[in-house]
Amino acid sequence: MRLPYINDGNADRIVDLLLNYNIQGEAEPNFNFIPVPSSLDVARNLTPLVAADYERSYGMGNRPTGNRTIPFDNFITGFATQASENEVHISFNQRNGDWLAEELDRNPDVPVFDCTDFCRNEIVINGNDEICEGENNTYSLSTNNGTVLWRIIEGRTLATITTNGRDAVLTPTNSANGRIVLEATLSDNVCLGGGQIFFTKTIWVGTPILDMNIECTYTDDFGDCYNICKDYDFAIDNSITVNVLGGLDPFRLDWDWEATTNNFRFLTDRNTIYLQPNQTGFIGMRVRAKNRCGTSDWFPIQVYVQDCGRGRNNFKVYPNPTTYKLDISLSEDGTIPSSDSPTQVKLYDMLGQLKKETILDKEMNGTLLSK
Q1: Rounded to the nearest 5 degrees, what angle is found at the Cα of 244, between the Cα atoms of 241 and 245?
Q2: What is the rounded distance in angstroms from the CA atom of residue 111 to the CA atom of residue 190?
Q3: Rounded Cα distance, 332 and 329, in Å
Q4: Under a CB-based contact definition with an 8 Å cutoff, are residues 308 and 314 in contact?
Q5: What is the pLDDT of residues 328-371, one digit of tens each?
Q6: Which site in 54, 65, 71, 328 is 20 to 30 Å from 276, CA atoms measured?
Q7: Where exactly are the structural domains of the chain?
Q8: Please, which residues have CB within 8 angstroms of residue 235's CB and are 6 or more apart in sequence?
Q9: What is the rounded CA–CA span in Å between residue 364 and residue 329?
Q10: Is 215:228 a contact under the CB 8 Å cutoff?
Q11: Residue 96 above 70 pLDDT?
């Protein structure tokens, strides 16, 4: 192991902190993190380097040539030619910082280099994530540099946009709800060298809209969320989750759940309902979400509960939702029950009232037709 050679002002000494671990160290009078030939890519890995290449002091007046050429037009190094000149390791200071800025600048007439990436990381659009009918909401960039142009690139019919100096003001249209994407274009001759950089912000207008593509986790997987096995416990796996459109955070909303049939029990946690489907047949529920602008429409959900039992008498109920016909058949992994007793299917509406019923045939098939 090579260790740095340290001068404490009185005598040269080796600081060997690994002595107790029986590890030997070799003193190095000059200690670099990365060898200069490696940093400059001397010879571009096309010619083997020798000791003289590593002992050489590189500089703009002593550039590698011939088969030792490097892929850089300019570079800066640090090496000590006398006690008052440079340090062993390069430091970043105003002198070499100004040099680096000049090298990176696309426009040599502009004293500052292109800092587009720095702007992108530090500048954001300030303003509310939600706006309600009757409000005027102001949005601004977190910088006072350059000029700003504003426009709505998604959801243009949901709000009008006006400008107030460097700021944008959004006013929702009457009874509008949906997602807006607001865009700010920043032009800056100093930081951006006359270029432009774009920033966007997603804003929700009005009350929430529920996503009709519900998510579910059931103890028995039927491949959809509208069939479930009868269960007498509040199994953590028997749950339905409803989300909202537009990227709204469901945890920032208030949620209401109601049972629309009286043949099951449930527990709720925000946008998730945990079911105890203890009777066969259809169970119904509905849900809505609320933000500071108001409450969404009720979203009804209906699930068919079947007695899976040991015989795995699993059924498919389709299509769901439907307005005319509901077909019932045995699923691929189901078995025909050995009992001669008929299998009865009952259909309830969202208020728990019996609307239709039928008896399945011996092959466990049946159809419910609306009147």
Answers
A1: 140
A2: 8
A3: 9
A4: yes
A5: 887 766 666 655 667 778 777 766 677 788 888 877 777 877 66
A6: 328
A7: 2-104, 116-205, 215-369
A8: 219, 274
A9: 6
A10: no
A11: no
How large is the C-alpha radius of gyration of the chain?
A: 36
Q: What is the pLDDT of residues 57-68, one digit of tens each?
A: 777 667 788 888
Place of tokens 């609320």: 290
- Tell me the C-alpha distance between 230 and 277, whole Å: 5
Tokens 């459109």, located at residue:
245
Same fold: 116-205 with 215-369: yes
Q: What is the DSSP string of 67-91?
A: GG--S-S-------SSTTS--SS--
Looking at this protein, which amino acid is placed at residue 186? L
> What's the CA gap between 304 and 283, in Å, rounded?
6
CATH (residue range 215-369): 2.60.40.10
Give the CATH number of domain 116-205: 2.60.40.1080
Q: Please enumerate in sequence order all residues whose Cβ is within 8 A of that of 354, keeping only pairs 6 or more positions apart, or say none.
A: 346, 347, 348
Please provide residue 51's backbone torsions phi and psi, each rounded to the nearest 5 degrees.
Answer: -55, -40
Q: Give residues with Cβ within 8 angstroms of 121, minimum separation 6.
A: none
Amino acid at 115: C
The angle subtended at Cα 262 by Cα 256 and Cα 266, nearest 5°, is: 50
What predicted TM-score, i.e. pTM, was given to this entire model?
A: 0.53
